[in-house]
Amino acid sequence: MTPLHAKLMRDLWRIKAQAAAIMVVIAIGVGLQIMMTGFVSSLTLTRDAYYERHQLADIFAPVVRAPNYVESRLADIPGIRTVETRLNSMASAKVDTREFSISMQVLSLPLHGRRHLNEVRLTQGRMPDAQRPDEILLLESFATAHGIAPGAQLEVTLHGVRRWYSVVGTAQSPEFIYFAAPGEFIPDDARFGVIWMGRPALAAALDLEGAFNEALVSLLRGANKDAVLDQIDQVLDPFGAPGAFGLEDFQSDRFLSEEISGLEVTSSTVPPVFMMVAAFLLYIVTSRMITAEREEIGLVRAFGYSKREVASHYLELALFIAVTGAALGCLLGVLLGRAMVPVYTTYYKLPFLLFRLEFASFASGLLLSITVATLGGIWALRGIFRLTPAQAMRPPTPPDFSHSFSFKKGVFARLDQPTRMVLRRLMRQPWRMLGAVIGIASGMALSLAMLIIYDGFDVAIDRTFNVVDRSDATVSFVQNVPMRTIYDLQGMEGISHAEPVRFVPVVFRNGLRTYKGSITGLSQAPILHRALDKGLQPIALPERGIVLSTPLADELDVAVGDTLMLEIREGRQQTVMTQVAGIAESLLGAPAYMDLAALGRQVGEPNRFSAAYIAMRDGAQSKVYADLKDMPAVAGISLRSEAEEAFQKVMDEGAGSARFIMGAMAFAITFGIVYNVARVAQDESARDLASLRVLGFRHSEAAFVLLGELAVVVLLALPLGLWMGTGLSHLIAQGFSTDLYQIPVIFAPKAYGSSISVVVCAAVVSGWLVQRRIRSTDITLALKTRE
Amino acid sequence: MTSVHDTDHAFKVQGLTKTYGEGHSAVHALRGADLEIGDGEIVVLLGASGSGKSTLLNILGGLDRATSGSVQFRDQDLTQMSDRALTNYRRRHVGFVFQFYNLMPSLTARENVELVTEIAENPITAERALELVGLTKRIDHFPAQLSGGEQQRVAIARAVAKQPDVLFCDEPTGALDSTTGRAVLRVIQDVNEALGTTVLLITHAAATAAMADRVIHFADGQIQKVELNKNRLSAEEIHW
User: Fold this and answer.
1) Within a domain: residue B73?
2) How does A262-279 read in b/e, with b if 16+ C-beta sit within 10 Å?
3) Fewest CB within a 10 Å sphere: which of A364, A431, A742, B23?
4) What integer pLDDT is reported at residue B152 of this predicted model?
5) Domains of chain A: which residue ranges?
6) What is the pLDDT of residues A186-205, one digit of tens each?
7) Domain-embedded: residue B145
8) B63 vs A424: CB contact, 8 Å cut-off?
9) Closest approach of chain A CAs to the CA of B61, in angstroms?
10) What's the pLDDT tens digit per position in A140-168?
11) How far apart are CA B73 and CA B166, in angstroms?
């Protein structure tokens, strides 16, 4: 070991606490990057392989009823590789574990054994026998949630007919990686299931023999998807098609893709903040060391060491810290990644998910930290290169404060001397102060923004489930029902109020902008489910015109008074022009509202309803379920409280750990900065502090001179952090809000409070540690030597 | 020489030892010193490096603790004092002047003196203290704008502004040329005469001993001899 290396090791040991604080900041940055990029690649690769192996379709084309011969017409469309048709329907199932039926999606299985689109992945049991109409396959997660194994019987109401089916196997499918009950966004394995059965049996049950109601299409490489979609619509239009859509508009794929792109954005924005803070810390530590060792540097230069050798000595110190931090970060990233796998597989039903350590991400994390160390180090090393050995060996002149503020006028004249020392030191090194202030504020902003977002989710839940939707349950029907059915509901003993609603699939068009969605028809002055404006006041739906939710209006780029084209995909399939009559607040989905009667007239099918919102009397739930079970028109019932609970559960689980992680991150950054700045300031002013003690100042009075500076830094960082955090939360909310869900930014005093306390706490702990060091310093030693 | 207190000694030191470290690596900095220092005296401590004079000065100044023995300052025993009591002792009774001045670079000359007068019980004004050392014109200058001799005079002004009972000077002229050094010694002598302050002065320059009332020679952690000087010279008469 060369003498310089021996010195390096001893220096590192001497500044071990500071080095450790910097390593932690780097480790968190690299760890987060490795974890997030690891998931981006794990999820992408797993998804792509799963899609590929199970031949997930590129296009889904629902239709009311098309004869089988139409399939060959679809196959003739240029750009299409494979077309397959199937039957797709909703049903309800009764399980022992629940009082009322659960909505199920029923899909037909192809007859023959060759490869098919949207193949299922059998996880247990066997495939149903095509000749046995009572055999079905069940979605694995649903079966698990209810403890149903192959061999069990399941009571299913399909197309108004109730019968028993034998479960012969369970399966997963790339169509159902992420799925939720109809009209919901949060997965709940117990409340939504999928049944696969032989096509002849399903066709018989649905009265769709010799026909299909969904076409699946895979495309040739390089095919023009939009053109294909248009042609499919042309072919299927006469048979009542709401419009074909690509995989990217498919719920499961959309959620997964949003998750992946969210991770991508976060992984490219959050870790750099940590790395910048680390660069700043390495800079102040290295430059302090160089200033303190000025005379030694002059000496070894006088012995004949080159500038490069001296510089690389200090650079090695910075690099050692950076590389160790990066290695720890890699470990942290892998551990975090592994810990997150079960969280992902709870919501994303992938056949397997292995957390991959991306070598590229590890390399880039390492490279980034090396760059950070080099930047921080080189900036500090400029000083060495400027000095000749003779200059370096001469003791430096006292730092010049002659340009600083004189404090002679006004209130300043009353400041005591220790306060003047604090203020002048701050003003003499404004860049260091600014760096520290911005660093702390950034750490605080990161955590604050996330806390605000999570508080926003709470508001979203409350608004969605308690303000917009005040019903107890939504009853959906197999087919559209007349008003009589609603009266029947209203007449039931346990139901205090029932409100009809109509959902109509529609393509919204404004110039080149289109959106495939649906219109919700609400009755006049509804009580249970309402369209609300920004001030959460009910909007009276006009007889003409449409009310769009904010995300939909944004998506289509329209405002109140603008005209919009609606392609109605139901009934007479008309295309009509309508005016935007209002904008409604919405946090879940991108709904559009119309007056129920007006919507019925547009569709050419007045007084028909697709569902009803109901309010139940206290304790009448069981009675209502029992009564509804006897209504063949009822397809299913979804309880608002269950949807809210599912949402709340996800938020609590996610938010709980996120709050902890964000708090820990802000703590680490603040601690790293305050502790390092304090230690460096303590080294720099060791003689001043000792002199103060000699002059008769108490420990606390001497510590004030040092910690006062940090208190000012933290106090400046707090408002900046609050401001940055609030701004960042707006950016995050904007960036992550989609037409699937919107993230509201709210005034969140709780979030402000907790982020302030984390920062203050970290500052107090580091201040206390430094203060303890001051206490144990021998005051006579500092007086002997010259700085 | 007039005594300002009833007791005729400022310090009474008995069997004072100081050992740094333990076992084989123990360094015996003081091996049993006995000494009395009169009130208002100028005492010069002479001796080679490591002879124990700085250790004695640090213990008398309340900066360090003895291993054994006792130190009486008037009627108080410094060796029995708590950390807080020692801080108060330094605050009320003691002024320090060091070889490297130890001024606060971020404070002007006046503010450096005010740093002490703000916490002292019966101080003279900073202006008066700086006038004593002849620095009235440089009162608003920062240390970086002052020469070594000027900085040392500010340090003396800071030390005497609280009107201390004892002034400890550790090599106050060590970093200065002889002319400037003499001027600094002159100031110390003036303070002793004007305020009756007891002065303990460590120096390498044996010639400085000529201005003392009493000269204490140190070697190997022990007092070799104590000389009484009947014919004190003024600072200007000293040459080294």
Assistant:
1) no
2) bbeebbeebbebbbbbbb
3) B23
4) 87
5) 1-53+255-397, 54-254, 417-469+641-787, 495-616
6) 788 888 899 999 999 999 99
7) yes
8) no
9) 9
10) 999 999 999 999 999 998 887 889 999 99
11) 10
